[in-house]
Write a structure and sequence with these properties.
Layout: H1 4-10, E1 19-22, E2 29-30, H2 31-47, E3 55-59, H3 64-75, E4 79-82, H4 89-99, E5 103-106, H5 111-117, E6 122-125, H6 133-139, E7 155-161, E8 169-174, H7 175-188, E9 196-199, H8 206-219, E10 222-225, H9 231-237, E11 243-246, H10 248-255, H11 262-265, E12 270-273, H12 280-290, E13 295-300, E14 304-308, E15 328-332, E16 360-365, H13 377-383, E17 390-398, E18 404-409, E19 414-416, E20 419-421, H14 423-431, E21 436-446, E22 450-459, H15 467-474, E23 486-489, H16 503-509
Helix pairs in contact: 1-7, 2-3, 2-6, 4-5, 7-8, 10-12
Bound molecules: methylmalonyl-coenzyme A (MCA) and adenosine monophosphate.
């Protein structure tokens, strides 16, 4: 029996000595080499006790070995669980406690705290340069064990997405959720072995790992592999690329540079944006500068990619394009105000499919849609209907031509530089700090991050709050990107007649804070 995802990823048309990863200033990593490393890591995980279906957590910097670790986990039949290196020890302890991985790979500097987080897991280390016990121990293994048998419905990955309750949910993705979507995108964007993707996204999210790596590997293309997005480096490397994928912040940062010119972009056949709204203004400025229109697409961790503007045809600013082939998108419920913050759409309204142009809840169905939340049957039932439709929490419209536009979110979520921050999680932390009566965390327009996290905090009677001290108290509790960029002390929070905090009003009050 075959390994559904792994076999497809390694059976790509690339010749064994074709480059998979291009490392500027260093020799490329060929397809043969990445497969060899993956096979040795798979063998190591297996002798370490991994059984098919067991989880392998990875909190590592981006390196060629990090990609080999993903592939090796899948090859061994494991379930890959990538974690942002920015997560604090407390955050990691929750993920590890919930997912119960049999093995954890972490930076050597975090080995001790990782061992504390899980006494049961086998811990390996891997640093940003690709060195550590994972590389050493895998190097001593043979590369000739066959890949573990895995069916299309078996799990390949769990990716945590924060919950509106403040508790993160593990989205369970099957082999076929990932493979079907990678095939759909490879076709839609006509990715081939001749493509070279400028890859500067992190590889612990759907965007950088699945949308980028799975598609390029399927097609046998190459990736210019950079640890993070540095705009000046992008300007020097883009002339060697045929594709780029990024969050909107990548594009605004490029536009901020005068040396990002039409010539620099000339050989890139498609610039793709996603993970957060691309402002029509950015779309326009980009076209003015380069003569090219950014291709915007839309997806979620739970659904992989669901809509995309076309490669050939109209790439419409402010729209995420029509549903991808094989994916269904519908708009349900009753129109809700676009900037409504945490709006619970009444259950009955969610049962009606709306007419073209009306605003409602975006729902998605297809082979791309996940299997549910790890060990959270109630959350799964609340968001994934028995007939396969997933309730995204995004509000949008669909035109008569099928083009979808996202106009807001029914879920209380801030997207900062493409990273999701759930206000509830930050509020729970702030509310626990000494002297705090209550807080409201909101997203405020930000020129670089699109939205920035801002906390409005009310002191207890008689208490005096110092924003600097509050920020300090949060520093090692939650990842830096979730911490408020600004903390505003207020006498009270605006509430409606029902006593609910009016976040839309707060956003309005503070909307020019970073202008
Ligand atoms: C870093 N910082 C951030 C962010 N990133 N703060 C808020 N939001 C962020 N996104 C912190 C740093 O810790 C640092 O803290 C300070 O901000 C300045 O960092 P800077 O040097 O500007 O950051 P950077 O290293 O340049 O990173 C910014 C970035 C990066 C390039 C925008 O965050 C990034 O690569 N984002 C992409 C995330 C992504 O891949 N999202 C896809 C997930 P200090 O103040 O201590 O200096 S969504 C997805 O997968 C779905 C399915 C989809 O549709 O794609
Ligand atoms: P996550 O599940 O963490 O990957 O975040 C997915 C969310 O990002 C979606 O539910 C949307 O709210 C948002 N998102 C992704 N792509 C886009 C896009 N092109 N435009 C607007 N929002 C987007």
């Amino acid at each position: 029996m075959s390994n559904h995802l792994y076999d497809a990823l390694v059976a790509g048309p690339a010749a064994p000595d074709a480059p998979c990863l291009i490392l500027p200033g260093d020799a490329p990593v060929t397809y043969a080499q990445i497969r060899d490393r993956a096979a040795r890591i798979a063998a190591l995980l297996t002798v370490s006790g991994l059984q098919p279906g067991d989880r392998v957590a990875a909190q590592v910097e981006k390196s060629p070995e990090a990609l080999a670790l993903y592939l090796g986990t899948i090859r061994a039949g494991g379930v890959f669980l990538p974690l942002n290196p920015a997560y604090t020890a407390a955050e990691v302890a929750y993920f590890v406690g919930d997912a119960e991985p049999v093995a954890i790979v972490c930076d050597p500097a975090r080995e001790a705290e990782t061992r504390t987080a899980s006494a049961a897991a086998k811990v390996f280390t891997l640093d940003a340069a690709g060195a550590g016990t994972l590389t050493d121990d895998a190097g001593a293994m043979a590369a000739d064990e066959p890949a573990a048998a895995r069916r299309p419905d078996d799990l390949a990955a769990i990716l945590y997405t924060s919950g509106t309750t403040g508790r993160s949910k593990g989205a369970m993705l099957s082999h076929d959720n990932l493979l079907s979507n990678a095939r759909t995108l490879t076709d839609a964007w006509e990715i081939t072995g001749a493509d070279v993707l400028f890859h500067a996204l992190p590889v612990f999210h759907t965007h950088g790992l699945f949308v980028a790596c799975n598609t390029l590997m399927l097609a046998g293309g190459a990736m210019i592999w950079r640890p993070r997005f540095d705009p000046s480096e992008a300007v020097s490397l883009l002339p060697r690329a045929t594709m780029m994928m990024g969050v909107p912040t990548f594009y605004t940062r490029l536009l901020d540079r005068r040396d990002f010119t039409r010539d620099v972009a000339a050989d890139v056949r498609v610039f793709i944006s996603g993970s957060a709204p691309l402002l029509p203004e950015t779309h326009r400025l980009f076209e003015e500068r380069t003569g090219q229109r950014i291709l915007e697409r839309y997806g979620m961790t739970e659904t992989n990619m669901t809509t995309s503007n076309p490669l050939h045809g109209e790439r419409r600013p402010g729209s995420v394009g029509p549903a991808l082939p094989g994916v269904e998108v519908r708009i349900m419920g009753e129109a809700a105000p676009p900037d409504a913050g945490a709006v619970e759409l009444p259950e009955k309204n969610r049962e009606t499919e709306l007419a073209p142009g009306e605003i409602g809840m975006i729902e998605v169905r297809g082979p791309n849609v996940f299997q549910g939340y790890w060990r959270m049957p109630e959350q799964t039932a609340a968001e994934l209907r028995p007939d396969g439709w997933f309730i995204t929490g995004d509000l949008g419209t669909k035109g008569t031509d099928g083009y979808v536009s996202i106009v807001g979110r029914a879920k209380d979520l801030v997207i900062s530089g493409g990273l999701n921050v759930y206000p509830r999680e930050v509020e729970m932390l702030v509310d626990d700090l000494p002297g705090v009566l209550e807080s409201a965390v909101i997203g405020v327009p930000h020129p670089d991050f699109g939205e920035a996290v801002v906390a409005v905090v009310v002191p207890r009677p008689g208490a005096t709050l110092d924003p600097g001290a509050l920020a300090g108290a949060m520093a090692d509790r939650i990842a830096r990107f979730k911490q408020p960029r600004r903390i505003v002390v207020a006498d009270e929070l605006p509430r409606n007649a029902m006593g609910k905090v009016q976040k839309a009003a707060l956003r309005e009050t503070h909307r020019a804070m970073f202008a």
